[in-house]
TrEMBL record:
SUPFAM superfamilies registered for this protein in UniProt: beta-lactamase/transpeptidase-like
Name assigned to this protein: Penicillin-binding protein E
Gene3D superfamilies membership: DD-peptidase/beta-lactamase superfamily
InterPro entries, alphabetized: AmpC-like, Beta-lactam-related, Beta-lactam/transpept-like
Pfam family, one: Beta-lactamase
Boundaries of every Beta-lactamase-related domain copy: 28-343
Source taxonomy: Bacteria, Pseudomonadati, Bacteroidota, Chitinophagia, Chitinophagales
Signal peptide: 1-21
Keywords, sorted A to Z: Signal
């Protein structure tokens, strides 16, 4: 009782609201579309290192009537890219490769256009390299294409969309190639590398890059697509087995540990983290609103936001960070809408509500 009175007095003096008294009903109202016997969502809001709100909505598995919890692991889709980029930056820090290494130096026999495409071009989506998805049929499920298959595709091409550094064009191909570099320069499989160098050191015990037959996703949330008013299980696509661009599964509980590590130097030294969170430039000096594995923008209040959305077959996700406020929101969902860009608006509506 005494501690509660002290907390209340401090809040009155500082003009802040005690977290225990906050009414989060407005958040539940925003998230009501995920509640009920429908594919759901896992939500966490972090402030000053504290989990001020953890909410679960709907179902992780409709067939088994398994409700979503904060420990459920969702396919992160492109939220994966920050982990792929971190693995590359770790190898740069260890002197295994550099940001200026060219594709022709890394992959023997790579086409001539790779002579001017660097690791940094790949990280910032300014390489101009072709989208591998254009060469994979939606029905190519047995087997699904993997990262090595992406390399096989681009090895057969002789053109790019534009000269490296001339434009920004989001590229899943780039991050599949980066995952292969992690394997080449570490001597480990991509998931093994992440386990040894990121997940285990941070205590992210359930996170993994999913390789069917090699590992298992515990507490797995399955993806669903709505068609003609009904939900249909559609957890995988022909490109879901590619790891570097979107193959990691994780939970809000594990991503909390990841988020907190980004304030420290445990996984990456400060200078490389700053590079990952920095705007980059095109050849003509125009700004690229993308760091290494992170989108960059200003919040409605004008503060720097470091974020990434993820969209794949029946998953929509976002991690949205405002470092100046020590604030992060994580939303993981297992359905095929809204469009990926609308996850930014959803995160911002929730942050305004709290």
């Amino acid at each position: 009782m005494k501690s509660c009175l002290i907390l209340l007095a401090c809040c009155l003096l500082t003009g802040t609201k005690p977290l225990m008294s906050q009414n989060f009903s407005s958040v539940d109202e925003i998230m009501k579309q995920y509640e009920g016997e429908v594919p759901g969502a896992s939500l966490m809001i972090i402030k000053d290192g504290k989990k001020i709100l953890t909410r679960s909505y709907g179902y992780a598995n409709l067939e088994k009537k398994e409700r979503v919890s904060s420990r459920h692991n969702f396919r992160l889709a492109s939220v994966t890219k920050q982990f792929t980029a971190t693995a590359i930056l770790q190898l740069v820090h260890r002197g295994k490769l550099s940001l200026q290494h060219k594709l022709t130096e890394i992959f023997p026999g790579f086409p001539a256009y790779g002579k001017v495409i660097t690791v940094q071009h790949l990280l910032t989506h300014t390489s101009g390299i072709a989208d591998y998805e254009d060469y994979v049929s939606d029905t190519a499920m047995h087997p699904q294409i993997m990262d090595k298959g992406v390399l096989d595709i681009v090895m057969k091409l002789d053109t790019v969309y534009f000269a490296p550094g001339e434009k920004y064009r989001y590229s899943n191909t780039a991050y599949a190639l980066l995952a292969l570099m992690v394997e080449k320069y570490s001597g480990l499989g991509f998931d093994d590398y992440l386990q040894k160098n990121i997940f285990r050191p941070l205590g992210m015990k359930q996170s993994l890059a999913f390789v069917p037959g090699d590992n298992e996703v515990k507490y797995r949330a399955y993806g669903y697509t709505q068609k003609d008013g009904r939900w249909k299980l559609k957890d995988q696509s022909s490109t879901s087995a590619v790891l570097g661009d979107g193959g990691i599964y994780s939970s809000v509980e594990d991503l909390y540990k990841w988020d907190q590590s980004l304030y420290l130097d445990k996984i990456l030294p400060t200078e490389l983290k700053q590079a990952a969170f920095s705007y980059h430039r095109l050849n003509n000096g125009d700004t690229v609103h993308y760091g290494f594995g992170w989108h960059l923008k200003k919040s409605p209040k004008g503060q720097q936001v470091i974020y990434h959305t993820g969209s794949t077959s029946s998953f929509r996700n976002i991690i949205y960070r405002i470092p100046a406020e020590n604030t992060t929101i994580i939303i993981l969902t297992n359905r095929n809408f809204p469009v990926e860009e609308d996850m930014v608006g959803l995160a911002e509506r929730i942050l305004i509500a709290v």
